Amino acid sequence: MNSPTQFPTQLIDRFGRTVDYVRISVTDRCDFRCVYCMDEKMEFLPRARILTLEELALVGRAFAELGVRKIRLTGGEPLVRNNVIKLIRDLGALPQLAELVLTTNGSQLETMAHDIRAAGVRRINISLDSLDAERFRRLTRVGDLSQVLRGIDSARAAGFDNIKLNAVILKHRNDDEVIPLVEFAAARGMDISFIEEMPLGTIGDHDRAEAYYSSDQIRADLEQRFMLLPTTETTGGPSKYYRLAETGTRVGFISPHSHNFCDTCNRVRLTAEGRLLLCLGQEHSVDLKHVLRTQPGCLDALKQAIVDSMAIKPKGHDFNLREQPLIFRHMSHTGG
Ligand code: SAM
Ligand code: SF4
After folding, report:
1. Ligand 1 mean position, distance from CA 219 (Å)
2. Within a domain: 93
3. Which of 1, 172, 207, 287 is the most buried (most CB within 10 A)?
4. 142 pLDDT higher than 80
5. Cα–ligand 2 centroid distance for 314 (angstroms)
6. Is the CB of 37 under 6 A from ligand 2?
7. What lines the ligand 1 site, CB under 6 Å?
8. pLDDT, tens digit, for every residue of 289-302?
9. Distance from Cα 231 to the centre of ligand 2, integer Å
10. Alpha-carbon torsion 90, 267, 319, 174, what sign?
11. Confidence at residue 1, expressed as pLDDT on a 0 to 100 scale
12. Is the CB of residue 34 below 6 angstroms from any atom belonging to ligand 2?
């Protein structure tokens, strides 16, 4: 009789980094078209090319059994995927997972927040780049601010342990909103993180180098109004955190340009198409869909492919805003 395959209890890459966090893109589709994320005329993948909910659940299980403790569902917009609540429930039931979290644009939260919480998600990130309806529409091209604000209210009522806002700040587009956004978060007991724009995919809307607004600049702007106390807190992601002395609100900065965080990278990403990306800023990947479709339901084959992928996780990204993007996939394909 064959003995069962022995797999490691932790994923460790060749640079000694432990990978215990996976971001899963459940769809490349989205109901918004944010100017920094997508081209106005995006082509989405045909349904047959993206992983089924059952395949996504099996990948989640494989990772959890290999020591992954945190899964984030993202996209595209994860909440526009049909029956995504079923997937959330399946992943929420994995005994090895310490955390199942979700990043959303908030458009569907008004009706879905309660079910998401009940399915096992305890922390949620909601993207919000502007509190001005017209500007919000311009940044998202189609989004309705009032719908997102109602979604945020529903999320607050649904009893998540923590809600964090994410804002991408672009010079001359919304850099004057950093103080109002922090005030908005603080008044509602939410955290907020600011993200520097990354050169993923061609976007056509603006010159990314010209729109660059650094985390250091945002912090300096905030210090005009608030006292920011540095903390060593981490949520297992790349954010560097401060707390407002006034309210205790946590303010994070995700700074791929000004503060490279590759040395402590603990994550990999799964695209909606089933490509396992070993680095956000490089093309190294493994085709897990091929494994899933040639050996359907075979957990061991999936685990072996994941273990083997650790050998090609690159040391780091080399983002450069002044050159053509080296990475042609958009953030929505990547599982941002
Ligand atoms: N649709 C969901 C949302 O917007 O929250 C989840 C997917 S979205 C790709 C995840 C996060 O990536 C959002 O907070 C968004 O603002 C951010 N993002 C998208 N494109 C980006 C880029 N080029 N640079 C930096 N952040 C980006
Ligand atoms: Fe959609 Fe999120 Fe990309 Fe905006 S950032 S277009 S909401 S996937």
Report:
1. 20
2. yes
3. 287
4. yes
5. 26
6. yes
7. 30, 36-37, 74-75, 77, 103-105, 127, 166, 168, 195, 197-198, 200, 331-332, 336
8. 999 999 999 999 99
9. 29
10. positive
11. 44
12. yes
CA of 28 to the centre of ligand 2 (A): 9
CA 27 to chain centre: 13
Q: How far is CA 274 from CA 48, 101, 212, 271, in A?
A: 12, 19, 31, 5
Whole-number Å distance, alpha carbon 294 to ligand 1 midpoint, is 32
> For residues 80 and 111, is the Cβ–Cβ distance under 8 A?
no
Q: Does the Cβ of 105 fall within 6 Å of ligand 2?
A: yes
Whether 260 is in a domain gets the answer yes
How many structural domains is the chain composed of? 1
9 found inside a domain: no
Q: Is residue 26 lining ligand 2, measured as CB closer than 6 Å?
A: no
Mean pLDDT of 269-285: 90
Is residue 11 assigned to a domain?
no
324 or 61, which is more confident? 61
What is the C-alpha to C-alpha distance for residues 330 and 317, in angstroms, rounded to an integer?
Answer: 15
What does each C-alpha distance from 227 to 138, 192, 241, 247 come to in angstroms?
31, 15, 13, 10
Q: Is 256 in the pocket of ligand 2 (CB under 6 A)?
A: no
d(CA 162, CA 169): 22
User: What's residue 204's pLDDT?
Assistant: 75
SS3 102: strand
- Residue 306 CA to ligand 1 center (angstroms) comes to 25
Whether the predicted model's global pTM rises above the 0.90 cut: yes
For 83-124, the pLDDT digits (tens) are: 999 999 999 999 999 999 999 999 999 999 999 999 999 999
Q: Counting every residue, how long is the chain?
A: 336
- Range(s) of the domain holding residue 254: 19-331
Tokens coding 335: 């599982």
The CATH number linked to 60 is 3.20.20.70
Compute the distance between CA of residue 160 and CA of residue 36 in angstroms, rounded to an integer.
28
Asked if 25 and 76 touch (Cβ cutoff 8 Å), the reply is yes
Residue 236's pLDDT is: 65
